[in-house]
Amino acid sequence: MDAEPASLSVAAALARATAWLRQAPRAGASGVDSPALDAQLLLAHVLARPRSALLAHDQHLLRPEQAAAFDGLLARRARGEPVAYLTGRKAFWTLELRVTPDVLVPRPETELLVERCLALLPAPEASVADLGTGSGAVALALASERPRWQVTATDRSGAALAVAASNARALGLGNVRLLEGDWFAPLAGRRFDLIASNPPYIAGKDDALADPALRHEPAAALSSGPTGLEALAAIIAGAAAHLAAAGHLVLEHGAGQERAVAGLLVAQGFGHVRCHADLAGLPRVTEARRPAD
Description:
Blueprint: H1 10-23, E1 25-26, E2 29-30, H2 35-47, H3 51-56, H4 64-78, H5 83-87, E3 89-92, E4 95-98, H6 111-120, E5 127-131, H7 137-145, E6 150-155, H8 158-171, E7 176-180, E8 192-197, H9 230-239, E9 243-252, H10 258-267, E10 271-277, E11 283-289
Parallel strand pairs: 5-6, 5-8, 6-7, 8-9
Antiparallel strand pairs: 1-2, 3-4, 9-11, 10-11
Helix pairs in contact: 1-2, 2-4, 6-7
């Protein structure tokens, strides 16, 4: 961004940043999706204040080092780096989570996965597994809503588990156990009342992977192979051996994958297969139940 006077006010800095982000080139496109919100989040981070304080104190003058830090973050945002990585924080469910480039940025649509788990299993006590937990978003949301549930979360990335562990500590959630390993590998001999997962489901050659924001996120958390169904198929194939009788399997998947996922579930003997749409009306979460013995 062009140099500006060091005495720029909050209001002026936000107006300037919003206009710049709206026009900044990003991988051949023009601007970012939410320039005003992004500018507010980044400036609130620089000033270590809530967004509401920006409006209440919009004539506050930025110090030169604050203006420089803000400009640096804006430049990175314009290149497609997610706001969550720039601030190190992301809201999910009722939680504020720490995120790093070692984990996928939690998405609002994944909250539907949490909703369905809670609806399917209202029991105050239960044993639940979250496969490929990343930042711990799903596992920690479930643990926060059901403090007597025992939630086991797995991930093959030790770096991701370190982020999840820091979130669990910060939130004071002691009913979550984190295990390193691929999908069911750390769960030998164990069965659960419910298994949930938001696995990588983007097809390997999908144009979505060219999005500048996705290029900053861990590739292994986005795609597991050419079709995008590879991880989903592996989880479905192994789930029955780790579910209690009449236990539930709840999976997030891509729009357009619902029929393939349903077919995989039926082929493995699951019943009560049902797909739910997210707030955008897109098929996003499919649930199924293991037959009772």
